[in-house]
Structures are given as C-alpha cells and as structure tokens.
C-alpha cells in the first residue's frame, strides 16, 4: 500500500474457503489481521446505525436481547439489491474508517510484520488494488458447502446464488499472487502460510 511501511496482504477465495482460518495463521506469525466482517457486526450495534435500521425495517430486525438480528437483516437484503446497496452505503464507510484507524495505530509497531485484510468483498469493492499482494485460498466446493451448511444452514443452491453475486473464482485467481490450499490439514496450511509470509517479507 502506498505510503504504508508494512506489507498489506489481501485474502480472497470462495465463500466458506476458510479465509478466516488462514488469517488466524497469519496472526499467529505476527501479522495484524483486520477482519471486516467482525467490524461490520460491531458497526451494526452503533446506536445511530441501529436507529437507522429500525427506521427502515422496524423492530423486527432486533433480537430478543436488543441486538441487531443479522439473520433478519440478511432476509431483508438477500433478494433485494436496492436494500443491500442501502445497507452497504450505511455500513461500509464506517468499516473503512475503523480499518484506517487500526492501521494507523499499528503503523510503527515492531510487533507487527504485515497487515492482513480478511474482507469478504475485497475484489468487488476494489480494495484489492490497495494491497501489496493477494493470496487466493483454494478449497474444494464440497468442503466449502459442508462448512456453510454447518455454520449458516445454507443449501448448495443458496451458496451458488451468493457466489454468483460475487466476483468469479477465476477472477479472484487471476489477480492473486499466491495460492494457499486449505483442505483441512491445519499443519499443512500453516506451513504454506509461513512460506508465503517469508516470500512477502523476503526473509
């Protein structure tokens, strides 16, 4: 990234490919990981954002504990590009601001070797252009489906529909500088992450 003293690494791959697990490996090796999904969940709980969502969609988007029900939000936006765009315009600028603040806070930290962006729409938003290197997390469809079925209750059709709304896997591979195969062996994955990080840091 221009004017940033540490390498910025972007992770791409299919839904359910295990990008977050790869990000955890990078973190264990001394990288700062910025997890946009987690930041977005925090943004949804900001009072002003929550008030806006209630104004748009009513109290049914709140769970019993008063927190935003992300599944209810997903139902509102899943097949409605207009509502999804409205939500993104509300949330994304706030996520970007927090990302910038985190990077500024760790800019000179000797404990941080590199910064990793674990961001779902890295390609679609154009953020990948700000990264110094892009890593593709390669995982078979069957493994990805098993993960999203277990974690989110999705069917194969739901996974395919969501992937069709993102940049293609071929596009993600095309812009990538390296590949990490994530097929379930944690030790093998960590070994690959270590190799990739060494290449990036040239050590």
Folded structure, characterized:
- This protein is an alpha/beta fold and 203 residues long.
- It folds into two domains: 1-31 and 113-203, P-loop containing nucleotide triphosphate hydrolases (Rossmann fold, 3-Layer(aba) Sandwich), CATH 3.40.50; 38-110, no CATH class.
- 52% of the residues lie in helices and 12% in strands.
- The protein is built from nine helices and five strands, in the order βαβααααββαααβα.
- A five-stranded parallel sheet has the order 2-3-1-4-5, sandwiched between helices.
- The longest helix is centred in the middle third of the chain and has 25 residues, at 81-105.
- The model has no long low-confidence stretch (mean pLDDT 94).
Structure, briefly:
This protein is of the alpha/beta class and 203 residues long. The chain has 9 helices and 5 strands.
Q: Which features characterize this protein?
A:
203 residues; alpha/beta; Rossmann fold; 2 domains; five-stranded parallel β-sheet; 52% helix; 12% strand
Count of alpha and pi helical runs: 9
- The number of domains is 2
Specify the CATH homologous superfamily of the largest domain. P-loop containing nucleotide triphosphate hydrolases
Helix-strand pattern, N to C? EHEHHHHEEHHHEH
Number of strands: 5
How much strand content do the residues show?
A: 5-15%
Output the CATH topology of the largest domain. Answer: Rossmann fold
The main β sheet shows up as: 5 strands, parallel
Radius of gyration: 18 Å
Class by alpha and beta content: alpha/beta
CATH class of the largest domain: Alpha Beta
Overall form: globular
Mean pLDDT: 94
Proportion of helical residues: 40-55%
Give the name of the CATH architecture of the largest domain.
Answer: 3-Layer(aba) Sandwich
Unreliable runs: none
Q: Give the CA-CA distance, first to last residue.
A: 20 Å
Strand arrangement, major sheet = 2-3-1-4-5
